[in-house]
Amino acid sequence: MKRGNWTKRPVDGREKNYRTRPYACVSQRLGMSEEVTSGIRIRRLTKTYGRIRALHQLNLDIQTNDFLTIVGANGAGKSTLLGIIAGLIRPSRGQVLLDGQDMTQDRDEMVGYKIGVLADHAYLYEELTVYENLQFYGRLYDVRSLNDKIESLLERVGMISRSKSMVKTLSRGMRQRVALARAMIHDPLVLLLDEPYVGLDQGGMDMLQMFLTDQPRTVLLVTHDLPRGLEVSDRIAIMSRGRLVYESASADLSFDAFDQVYRKFAVMM
């Protein structure tokens, strides 16, 4: 995947000698002078659970066909952010816009057609076969030539031989492969991935890499796998305590350099 010409800068703005970027992944403290009219635009996003603040006035832009990886410690707010974008969690305050439409206020059926989600929960029916699960979701999205689409996806995820197997008989890695096919059944323009490598063997990880880079789409990846997250993305960001605290062009960083940066910010987590 081609990576953009981004430069790194801690989002508190204290370090100097970094040029600015047209669409930066930054915190509210820097402000936003440029508008993103396509892709994902998030402003002052806040989510609280009682006294626990999962997200705090978070700002984020992901341009169309951009690939952003977000890493951070458990409890940093990564999965909450992804869940809000996916429409699975309601925010306490703030805006989430997809191609200019505020998904927190007027989310309609067509927005769902643009988004594919691979999360902790596989969203598969245990008592249905692999094929029947994909058939169900394909019909939900009015996918054309559905049978051909299902067979093509099952071939790609290496599950064609298990198409008649009930989901409840599958291993964790196999379920993850089927869940990926489910997320891709309607060819979404936006792909949201929460720890997608969990449960996959090396072959499964390689297969997922191919899916992520085979065609242009907007991707938000949440992962603890720093090397892979850095390798596949255009940009990479660190999240801590409900805020984005650092971002960089992935191409600007070796893994060793990013690991040092991550360890530096880890003390804040």
Describe this protein's structure.
The protein has 269 residues and is α/β, with parallel strands linked by helices. The protein has a domain at 64-74 and 109-268: 3-Layer(aba) Sandwich (Rossmann fold). Helix content is 30%, strand content 23%. It has helices at 78-86, 109-114, 130-140, 146-156, 172-184, 202-213, 226-232, 255-266, and strands at residues 9-10, 40-49, 52-62, 67-71, 93-98, 101-102, 115-118, 190-194, 218-222, 235-240, 243-249. The chain has a seven-stranded mixed β-sheet, with helices on both faces. Helix 6 links the parallel strand 8 (190-194) and strand 9. The longest helix is centred in the middle third of the chain and has 13 residues, at 172-184. Residues 1-33 have low confidence and may be disordered.
In short:
This protein has 269 residues and is an alpha/beta fold. It has helices spanning 78-86, 109-114, 130-140, 146-156, 172-184, 202-213, 226-232, 255-266; strands spanning 9-10, 40-49, 52-62, 67-71, 93-98, 101-102, 115-118, 190-194, 218-222, 235-240, 243-249.
